């Protein structure tokens, strides 16, 4: 790949990982920013490591591991849902970045479908993520697929950014607004990522690919 193309791809990948956080910041995300509160960052890093290791984030256990009481932990990072939401997004953002980098489609609707399919596939094959869904299905659905936490808002904003970049301001010949198309794409993504929790079906990136292609009118 020519150096100019690689640089362009890396720039896009970096952008896709930051759009959501800018669109829907939270009290905790701001505390974890560039000039973040060091205690909040320390607690967040410990929670993130716990999650990646496939273990439940328990506020009491986390506080004990940090050598503080629960009151101090809540003051640093907020409640468990707030902490879980930021941990989840901190893993989703680089996954989106990797999906952008690894996309083989050049541009347009096929590229949107390809990136979102790769994202679904990565979520479906991440052991720590699937473990969380099995341990806490109701909480997972609430945090991941509703506006109760910022995760869905960030994913919709990221997808809208992708739609506007690849399809312009009048996607599908102006049949639908970019924001509305992004929301539908996210709902499809959720359906094939959390199929086991929603309907008892099997999560499938291949069926997600077919659905994305149909909605986006991708030829072939």
Strand content: under 5%
Helix content: over 70%
Measured between the Cα atoms of the first and last residue, the distance is 25 Å
Helix-strand category: mainly alpha
Summed up:
The protein is an all-alpha fold and 220 residues long. The chain contains 15 helices and no strands. It is globular, with a radius of gyration of 18 Å.
Description of the structure:
This protein is an all-alpha fold and 220 residues long. It has one domain: Tetracycline Repressor, domain 2, CATH 1.10.357. The chain has helices at residues 3-16, 19-23, 27-31, 38-52, 59-66, 70-77, 80-102, 108-124, 127-135, 137-145, 151-167, 171-174, 178-193, 195-198, 205-216. α5 packs across α6 (70-77) and α11 (151-167) crosses α13. Mean pLDDT is 93; it is low at 1-8.
List keywords for this structure.
15 helices, Tetracycline Repressor, domain 2, mainly alpha, 220 residues, disordered N terminus, single chain
Question: In terms of topology, how is this protein built?
Answer:
Elements (H helix, E strand, L loop, with lengths): L2 H14 L2 H5 L3 H5 L6 H15 L6 H8 L3 H8 L2 H23 L5 H17 L2 H9 L1 H9 L5 H17 L3 H4 L3 H16 L1 H4 L6 H12 L4
């Amino acid at each position: 790949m020519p150096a100019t193309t690689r640089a362009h791809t890396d720039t896009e990948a970096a952008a896709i990982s930051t759009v959501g956080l800018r669109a829907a910041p939270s009290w905790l995300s701001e505390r974890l920013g560039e000039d973040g509160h060091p205690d909040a960052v320390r607690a967040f890093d410990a929670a993130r490591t716990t999650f990646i290791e496939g273990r439940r984030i328990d506020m009491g256990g986390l506080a004990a591991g940090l050598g503080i009481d629960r009151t101090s932990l809540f003051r640093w990072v907020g409640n468990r849902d707030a902490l879980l939401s930021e941990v989840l997004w901190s893993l989703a953002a680089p996954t989106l970045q990797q999906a952008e980098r690894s996309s083989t489609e050049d541009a347009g609707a096929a590229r949107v479908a390809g990136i979102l399919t790769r994202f679904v596939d990565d979520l479906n094959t991440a052991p720590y993520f699937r473990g969380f869904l099995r341990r806490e299905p109701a909480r997972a659905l609430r945090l991941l697929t509703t506006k109760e936490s910022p995760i869905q808002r960030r994913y919709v904003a990221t997808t809208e950014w992708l739609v506007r970049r690849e399809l312009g301001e009048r996607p599908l010949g102006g049949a639908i607004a970019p924001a509305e198309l992004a929301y539908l794409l996210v709902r499809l993504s959720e359906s094939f990522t959390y199929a086991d929790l929603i309907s008892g079906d099997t999560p499938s990136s291949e069926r997600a690919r077919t659905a994305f292609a149909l909605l986006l009118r991708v030829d072939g």
